[in-house]
Amino acid sequence: MKKVLVIVWILALSNVGCKDFLNLVPKNKKIVANVEDVKTEMLMYLGSITYSVGKILQPSYGSSSFRFPLYNDVATRLALYEDDIDMSYYSEHSDIDERSVGVYKECIDWKGVSLANVLWEKCYGAIGFMNVIIDDLEKAGGYTQTEYECIVGEAKTIRAYYIFKLLQFFAPYHDNKLGIPLNLDSDNVTPSDRLSQREVYRVIIRELEEVLEFETVRDKWNMFYSPGVVKAILAQVYMFKAGSAAAEESDWANAEKYSGELIEGYEPENQVDVLSEMFSGTVREYLVANPNYQLRMTYRKSCGFGNLYTGIWAKGRAQRVSSDLLSMYADSDIRRAAWFKTEEKEGRMVYYINKPAYTESINEVTVLFRSAEMYLINAEAKCRQNRVPEAKSMLEVFKQSRILDFEGYSGQDVLEEILRERRKEFCYEIGTRWLDMKRLGIATSRVGMSKEGEGSETYVLEANDYRYALPIPTTIELNYNKIEQNPGWGNLK
Q1: Does residue 24 carry a pLDDT above 70?
Q2: Which domain holds residue 81?
Q3: What integer pLDDT is reported at residue 160 of this predicted model?
Q4: Is residue 407, in this structure, part of any structural domain at all?
Q5: At 328, which CATH number?
Q6: Based on the number of CB atoms within 10 Å of its own CB, is 13 exposed (0-12), middle (13-18) or buried (19 or more)?
Q7: How many domains does the chain have?
Q8: Mean pLDDT value across the chain
Q9: What pLDDT, in 10s, does the model give residues 233-253?
């Protein structure tokens, strides 16, 4: 990998806000003077991925300008990959803008190379910058334990989360040797070969467990540095790892452990208004830490975010819910009223997504972690460890919180019902369903516009299909010539 320069914008920031601009200093000439300079570097990154600075601030690492890697355009593409959308809408209508149609055609057969490019660039760019933050702090010295833990805790949690996302999206689920390249040294940017998935997981878990040992209470500016967030990521990591080629015997036990610590004494909410406001960050269902803790990424359309998102989702366009998903909700399921809307269109009722993040508003809120997910991870972990009665009891408590007339689960397949609840609960939430489809080996098919743009075509995704691992961006592969492409993708042009 070529030696890259980090352009650091030194800002006077307060609470991740932008007050003033000072000089631009190239990274290779910059001398980190003190701990406050390093903190400013971190605040600059956090500011760049929130609405508070928007397009005003565009810092970069190498060629990558910072954005939260799962921003709304990416979330839109991931939703189009999933089986929760009725993709036939575009076959029937021509009132969608050209860019949205282009994205649709790219996603309809699960071969969206631009999605891979964005995820690769944004995640690795952020990882590189976190490397710089940690190394700069060590060089500056003179820090207190509190300063160290607030800065390094934030950096390592962010870094581990992005490494995990890269592993989820780019590693074939059943091939341990094909993990991802990884380098945690800002001074030595020589690329690594693809590490095994198990090696990468060990890095992720080591980083997060180290942060859990910190004793400092998060500062007001911290976003990811919180025991609740760290445990939520660990629960997700162990759940995803447990079914992969990197699986180890203790994975489900650890998924149960970390999710259990977050939901101790917790019962899910059961009110329509609570579910409707869940994505505002103001209700308990949303939280994975103390009652005063909120973690959300907010993007302002006025700052240029969400253009593609707006084109595809706004005003009911292409938000049609698949009949398979909709049929899972009973009339008495409060999620049906809270998260979906109906319209009469062309003489028939059409169902649209109405989760707050999928409505047209000035602010779009991206939710990363919810207590409800921890609850269902815990139930699944118990079931996978053959403690079915315990899992069934948790399942029933959860279903009672969502279905008004629910009395008890009489079915035989508790695990399958837990997975059905995951699908119903987390539909359209930043690729959650896509990654579940990957880990569960789900095959699907759908009817949509032909790639030529005339008529319709049936597209098929097989169980454990190679397309569940996104292609390594061709430019990266060609430039550095050391990264093995994922099976099935060939030599992309």
Answers
A1: no
A2: 72-110+259-461
A3: 98
A4: yes
A5: 1.25.40.900
A6: buried
A7: 1
A8: 80
A9: 999 999 999 999 999 999 999
Instruction: Give mean pLDDT, residues 269-277.
Output: 72
Say if 233 falls within a structural domain: no
6-14 and 17-26 strand pairing: antiparallel
The tens digit of pLDDT for each residue in 91-106 reads 666 566 777 788 888 8
Closest C-alpha to 322, from 80, 115, 72: 80
Q: Is the pLDDT of residue 368 over 90?
A: no
Are the C-beta atoms of 256 and 387 separated by less than 8 Å?
no
215, part of any domain: no
Give me the residues paired with residue 321 across strands: 85
What local confidence, expressed as pLDDT, does residue 21 receive? Answer: 22
**Domain annotation covers residue 333:** yes
